[in-house]
Amino acid sequence: MRRNIVHMGAGELHYEIREIVQIAHEIRKAGKELIWENIGDPIQKGETPPEWIQAIVHNLVDDPQSWAYCDTAGVPEVREFLAEQVNRRPGGVQITPDDIMFFNGLGDAVAKVYGFLRREARILGPSPAYSTHSSAEAAHSGYSHVTYELDPYNGWLPDVDDIRNKVKYNDSIAGILLLSPDNPTGAVYPRALLEEIAAVAREYDLFLIADEIYVHIVYNGSPRLHMSEWVGDVPAIAMRGISKEYPWPGARCGWIEILNRGKDENFATYVRSLLAAKRLEVSSTTLPQLTIPRVMGDPRYEKHLTCREQMFERRAQEAYDVFKDLDCVLVNKPGGAFYFTVVFKDGVLNDRQTLPIENPAIRTKIEELTRNVRPDKRFVYYLMGSTGIVVVPLTGFYCNRYGFRMTLLETDDTKRAHIFKTLREAIVQYTTSC
């Protein structure tokens, strides 16, 4: 074209969780049955929301209001309900319904939150990073995502000294992102550490973003802890949604809680720009919003959350028990969310290791794919070709450590045990193949 129409950040848009699906489809067409462990969709792995939640959704379909546009920021009574929930948290930040803003899923919220930042303003995020955040942040600036380290030798907790140094010596950093519970590691950060990060933000006049999509899926003794309870007076944005809690990922319904907007006029102006951008879309989907007071306000919801937390705690223990004694990998038992990350120890992987693949066409395809790729992606491709199990390489999460992420979502106990056992056997066979 006579003008270059490509955004300078287009090359930063990577989502390994979905991109590996394209390769997997080619393997499936060649005759391999696949087991999808790459994406966090509870419904696709066999979970169904309780009948009483489904009944609420069914009944709302008969309500004409559920078919209409809603206010740009969201249904007023839903925002009032959520604001009241925030304000009931002990010792937390107080907000109004005007501090709640709905989006078509958190992917939409992430795109807006980063997309309407000044290009020179950078957000410091974790490594490993959830791809939606890291790609959106890099794309808005046109440069590689800036990160702080999560330490697998310390339960995947953030290195606060690394955060402080990055902030101190890079004045383009305007905010800090954190995920607790974390994706992909399943780490849940203790309150003292979160308050320490908030103190860094306060000292250097930054704002904070917390992705809390898994905030109600915690276990192993970790409490449910919301950003409004620990952020103090720091301007901040908490991201919430129903996709993982009900679970209803297809609803595409997420929202942000804006905290301490009155503490900084520049932050307040930025928040107003998010609402102005949302007005261009008119509104987010109405029906899923209308379910929120009815579902979250129902006395059965607390039991629903508790049962799911207990379920994922059992599965996390199952996975940990399978991999914990392997000398070639490092694993941490998750404390939240529904993922499990395996890290290969330094020097374990090389470019000569393989797994047996019976189908010649698939073997040829895998050999082609594994030329000049990172060592963990090489393992993931051979794993797919040999066993049909699809996982995500850890380097796909903006990370320099080699490993992979799997889910804890399989509902069939026998199948889940088979997946874990097959993965363990594949690791041993691969790492000892040469």
Characterise the protein shown here.
It is a single chain. The chain is of the alpha/beta class and 434 residues long. It folds into two domains: 168 residues, Alpha-Beta Complex (Aspartate Aminotransferase, domain 1); 246 residues, 3-Layer(aba) Sandwich (Aspartate Aminotransferase, domain 2), CATH 3.40.640.10. It has 14 helices and 14 strands. The protein has an eight-stranded mixed sheet, with helices on both faces. A four-stranded antiparallel sheet has the order 10-11-14-13. Helix 5 links the parallel strand 3 and strand 4. Helix 11 runs parallel beside helix 14. About 2% of the residues have low confidence.
Attribute tags:
single chain; 434 residues; alpha/beta; Aspartate Aminotransferase, domain 1; Aspartate Aminotransferase, domain 2; 2 domains; 8-stranded mixed beta sheet; 4-stranded antiparallel beta sheet; 14 helices; 14 strands
Kindly provide the radius of gyration, computed on alpha-carbon positions and rounded to a whole number of angstroms. 22 Å
CATH architecture of the largest domain: 3-Layer(aba) Sandwich
CATH fold call of the largest domain? Aspartate Aminotransferase, domain 2
Portion in beta strands: 5-15%
Instruction: Write out the strand line-up for the largest beta sheet, numbering strands in chain order.
Output: 2-9-8-7-6-3-4-5
Multimeric status of the protein: single chain
Instruction: Report the span from N to C terminus.
Output: 50 Å
Global structural class: alpha/beta
Shape: globular
How many individual domains? 2
* Unreliable parts: 9-15
Classify the helix fraction into a percent range. 40-55%
Number of strands: 14
Q: What is the average per-residue confidence, as pLDDT, rounded to a whole number?
A: 93
- Biggest sheet layout: 8 strands, mixed
Return the string of H and E elements.
Answer: HEHHEHEHEEHEHEHEEHHHEEHHEEEH
**What is the CATH H-level superfamily of the largest domain?**
Type I PLP-dependent aspartate aminotransferase-like (Major domain)
Number of helices: 14
What is the CATH level 1 assignment of the largest domain?
Answer: Alpha Beta
